[in-house]
Amino acid sequence: MRIAFLGTPDFALPILEACLRAGYVALVVAQPDRPVGRSGKPQPPAAAKWAREHGVRLEQPEKVKQGRLADLLASASPDVAVVAAYGRILPPDALAVPRYGCLNVHASLLPELRGAAPAQWSIARGLSETGVTIMQMDEGLDTGDIRLQARLSIAADETGETLLAKLGEVGARSLTEALVLLERGQLPRTRQDPARATLAPMLTRDDGRVDFGRPALACDQRRRGFTPWPGAWTTLGGAVLKVHAAQVVAGPRPQASSDLRPQATSDLRPQPSDLRLEGSEPSGARPPGEILRADDAGIDVACAGSVWRLLELQLEGKKRLAAGPFLQGTRLQPGDRLGT
User: Fold this and answer.
1) Tens of pLDDT along 133-150?
2) What is the per-residue pLDDT across 252-264, written as a single tens digit (0 to 9) for each?
3) Dmax over Cα atoms in the chain, in whole Å?
């Protein structure tokens, strides 16, 4: 089976390897090299590096419409195109080129979490399970028919980075199975239920801004989900303060939300007995973002009916530090507020 592969980041690599084992990879299409780091020097994405290392034809078009991508695919005569985090919507003429169409390896259990950042949002929204969908691509945003799915539990300490790595491996195994069944004409095909669809939009830097008006658990879920980028950050004295490590020490556990809107705090109002754990001070009616306690064990911050303990922090222009050393270099103390 001749395969054209379209993908860009590290998530794509185990899936590329699966394509290599399953057939002949005639073409790899990745996004163009982009500036990386402080130097701003353009660097090739992971899939482009893989193609060069394996001697596979590589194309990195700046534009994909007006027949550009369709012509590239046609030149490779693929039986199927496999897409994994390519980062661009394929135009209809490109979708029509391969004999078996285009299969997308999507990091969620569609129709949940359609969009660019499904793994990150699954953690940020407090889901306990996600997975991978092999989808027959159409012109919509992750709206095509489901061909195969595999489930994966989300660990309590999962981050967006670690979950994507796991889902890449699950996606590789699922794709291998799907390609075998596809060639035999035995790959199932099921329409998505649009009534169950949710969105996982592309992340922005502002998604990482901590809203202390949320419950502490929701703040921590977003911190983990948005690691490594945009991370969790707030402000202290006008400077950006990154929260690298934290834990919930007091408060109720909100249920996973069914969409991306913040949960109403009125639904999460705790009883007084729920608010003290592990020596923390209860937040009570303290303003969100107020420091309740600050010592070597951590910096306890008031959230919605709960307490969030900050364990590792990094002030703009400074090194990443544990709470104790961080406090030695600042005048942060109980009663101060973050995010103002």
Assistant:
1) 999 999 999 999 999 999
2) 544 444 333 333 3
3) 68
